[in-house]
Specification:
alpha/beta, Rossmann fold, 2 domains, two-stranded antiparallel ribbon, 6 helices
Amino acid sequence: MSSFPAIIYLRKTKIYNRTLNPFLSTEKKLNVSKLKRKAFISGPIQGVEAEQSYRHVIREICIRCGYEPVDPWQREKIIYKGTEPGWWTKGPAAGFIRRDLEDIQKCDVLIAYLPRLSAGTCMELFYAKLKGKKTICICRIGNPSPWIIVHSDTILKDIGELEAALKRELC
């Protein structure tokens, strides 16, 4: 593992995730913390801990569209090892939930990825709507609950549609 801090670089229209190494080329740096809008990334974790690659895709799309991604998985993945049955009952659940809700309050939009039903994702979707946030749901569920439909400003069938939806939000 590198001892250099991570930073994101922008070269033309592509975004690269690299470590900040003084020996790398001098590409133009994009300071993600200076992006004006924030997008909370919500999606299933419990039972699919090893299948979180969708978050990387959503993060990249957010950055391209001018949103700073806020992804609770980045801080919680150490806790969510999922190596034993009932592991989630041994952690401070109220702490993660409180931090997630605080993050949602600080965001402009919540992006809910629902390839399958997820209690946590549905609760975050409901909370975001309750707080007046814009919500985008990438829903792969064949017949989603009316709760998902009512609490989603935009429903997409595929993650590939997200970039256009976020660009519409900017207008």
